[in-house]
Write a structure and sequence with these properties.
By secondary structure, the protein is an alpha/beta fold. The protein contains 12 helices and 15 strands. About 40% of the residues lie in helices and about 20% in strands.
Length: about 350
């Protein structure tokens, strides 16, 4: 099949392109190359499969004409392009909504106008559920716990778009669902938790798992915001891509559905009180950190209830947190020179 991946030179996009090319699919990568590391990811794909193995379109999702042309022959559109940082959305809310909400609308219109009526896979976020401050949080020695949601937050939990980022991604989330209802497009929404893995050029504001490892190994200062007991469920990128494949393979039966995809209860960890000791054990030394105030919209706990994805897609994470962190740490150590160059221009 012919795949179009918006944000195709990014972390998730390049990993998915690698998988698709390996199994012989036709792939078009659509990316404006604004994110540090995007060029390196393109070079990695070209060096692995050859520069003619895939098509690259340098473009922005805010350009509807170029996007529509790029999508015209696609059987599947995987929409990953986004403004990804909550802090940036607070500082630049207009840019955030133009990229995330209007950009997603442009993707949907490109799909609607295509004669192929392509499948649209949308990468949403757990931020659509808000800060979850209304829930009862029990504080333990190393983490917070949601008293009333032992299986995590389900897809049926009321939406509460918190922060401009939450609003813009949430708008896209609902548009993608509604285009299945109103126009009959085969679409699926994945509300993603903390995705991590190789090719992730993390920064302080986004991609915290990768950033903690990169900063530690390259001797950069590391700041923990809040008290470090905040809990997230981590999902290794290959497990995420399995979910994409499972949904695409089950169309149109799952069209219009929304799924939480995260590590779930078995892959939850507090961002420093538990993650820190694990990383210190893997790397073999203590890690100095400084501390900062809580950031807007920061959830004390987010763990995804992933039972619906298991039921409908036959999907469940395969890579546990310790294994995934070790694999990402090895990738960072093997690419120190590349990451040093990346940080020098960040």
């Amino acid at each position: 099949m012919q795949y179009l991946i918006t944000g195709g030179a990014g972390f998730i996009g390049s990993n998915y392109a690698f998988r698709l090319l390996k199994r012989g699919e036709q792939v078009t990568l659509y990316d404006n190359l604004s994110r540090r590391g995007a060029q390196a990811n393109l070079q990695w794909l070209a060096s692995t499969y050859g520069k003619d193995a895939f098509r690259f379109v340098q473009g922005d999702v805010r350009d509807p004409a170029l996007l529509t042309a790029a999508a015209y022959e696609a059987d599947v559109i995987v929409h990953l392009a986004a403004q990804v940082a909550v802090t940036t959305s607070v500082e630049q809310p207009r840019r955030d909504i133009e990229i995330n909400a209007l950009g997603t609308f442009n993707v949907l219109e490109a799909a609607r106008l295509s004669p192929k009526r392509p499948i649209v896979v949308y990468a949403s976020t757990n931020k659509v559920y808000g800060a979850l401050d209304e829930l009862v949080h029990e504080e333990r020695e190393t983490r917070y716990v949601l008293r009333d949601y032992p299986n995590g937050i389900p897809e049926t939990y009321p939406l509460d778009f918190h922060s401009p980022y939450g609003c813009s991604k949430g708008a896209g989330d609902q548009y993608v669902r509604d285009y299945a209802r109103i126009y009959g497009l085969p679409t699926v929404v994945f509300r993603q938790s903390c995705i991590y893995g190789p090719r992730q050029f993390g920064i302080e504001d986004q991609g915290w798992v990768a950033w903690f490892i990169i900063a530690t190994l390259l001797g950069r200062p590391l700041t923990i915001y809040g008290d470090g007991k905040q809990v997230r469920d981590l999902l290794y990128v290959e497990d995420l891509l399995d979910a994409y494949d499972a949904a695409i393979g089950r169309m149109p039966a799952v069209s219009g559905q929304i799924y939480n995809v995260g590590g779930g209860p078995s892959n939850q960890i507090s961002i420093w009180r538990e993650f820190g000791p694990l990383l210190e054990e893997i790397l073999g030394h203590t890690i100095p950190v400084s501390w900062g105030d809580w950031r807007p919209g920061d959830q004390r706990v987010f763990v995804a209830d992933i039972r619906k994805a298991h039921r409908d897609l036959g999907w469940h994470p395969q890579i546990d947190v310790e294994t995934g962190i070790r694999q990402l740490s090895h990738w960072v150590m093997d690419h120190r020179e590349l990451l040093e160059r990346y940080l020098a221009h960040a």
